[in-house]
Amino acid sequence: MRFHCRFLSLVLVGLLFSLVAVRAQNNPEFVFGDLIPDAPELAARGTYAVGVRSLTLVHTGQWDVLHARNGETPRYDRPLPVEIWYPATIPTGKAERVEYEQVMGNFNDPKRPLIPFTFAGRAGRDAEPNRGAEAYPLLIVSHGYTGSRLLFTYLTENLASKGYVVVSIDHTESTFRDAAGFPSTLLNRALDDLFVLNEMARLGEKGGKTFLAGLLDANNTGLIGYSMGGYGALNATGAGYSANAGKFFGQMTGGSKAFESRMMSSPDYKASLDPRIKAVVAFAPWGMERGFWDADGLAGLKLPTLFVAGSKDDISGYEKGIKAIFDGAVNADRYMLTYLNARHNVAPNPPPVESLKPGLHIDEYYRYAEPAWNERRINNINQHFVTAFLGMHLKKQDYAKYLDVPQSANDSPVWTGFKPRSSVGLEMRHAKP
Prior knowledge:
By secondary structure, the chain is an alpha/beta fold. It is built from eleven helices and 13 strands. The protein has a single domain (31-431), classed as Rossmann fold, CATH 3.40.50.1820. Strands 1, 2, 5, 6, 7, 8, 9, 10, 11, 12 and 13 form an eleven-stranded mixed beta sheet that branches. Strands 3-4 form a two-stranded antiparallel ribbon.
């Protein structure tokens, strides 16, 4: 009888914690990215209020690889909706609050119909920019396949509050709303990143007529990518694709040559590398297990890079995937943060309340959730380490102590910036050229 009562008490406690977690996300005061009690030091928001605006950019005359036939590839215009967060001035008495519109599901998948939902953020829609004495560094953010420019608001808002202009892309034919054939994603990720960099530089020119004029410094840019976004960010910054990748792409597209310009062997590829990009954050980058890089390609990555991975990643792979990229990028000053026992979802917002509804496909929940980790804790840890890494390389801040920690958090004193007893389940590797 005593055992039965004790077991029942444990079950009730578990249910209570589950209800608290659900109610927290259903609470109008809760916002993705808010701190939980054991959040590390640099996870806290910065001193700037945050504004947010939406734009649509159009990349004209691009290869339409989804309609390639017999080696012939037509051209088309690629619309690229972007969300832009920036330091802002919020009028007195007006809340720093925004409602984002999102969908879950997958376009053209009858088992996962598109379901609209909204969630709150801490930013002022169309707020006036806070123009300082100097322009802010630029960050470009790239989602996975499939995904959305709003998948990382916990991080994009946080970084804008610390003095960055943050631009997150909806990659055409790769979002929840318009997912199409994979060759488009394979080709266009790096090209989209580089185009958006050029557009932000144009719109941010001093004396211009847009709200971005004089606000950002495109010569001091960082790329942040998740999954296929990480794949593209690495290629945009020196990791040219292999001959094997080119063969794979050609087989998928009936012989299209469009991919050749992103291969390490191409003179056009090397000419495309942009010196304005100074640092890279790659969350769970895809491609290594499929042979998209060889030793020469990985050796081409020379920029400071922070990799973030789950040790049980079943999408990008860990030992033969993300860790192999880290090990092979021998010419880069690089870090790798590993969440032990995490799978692939080491970058997104927490699961929205709508994903918890009975009867939905489990992937609506597992698009965001990690089975062995609290996603809000992952978010806070990411805020901390991305702040430290980008602060070092784009703002010249003295944050090395937060990154140069013992490799295993389980077998060492508490990591710098972490609360007592909280730096467990993590590893940090650092390798220099």
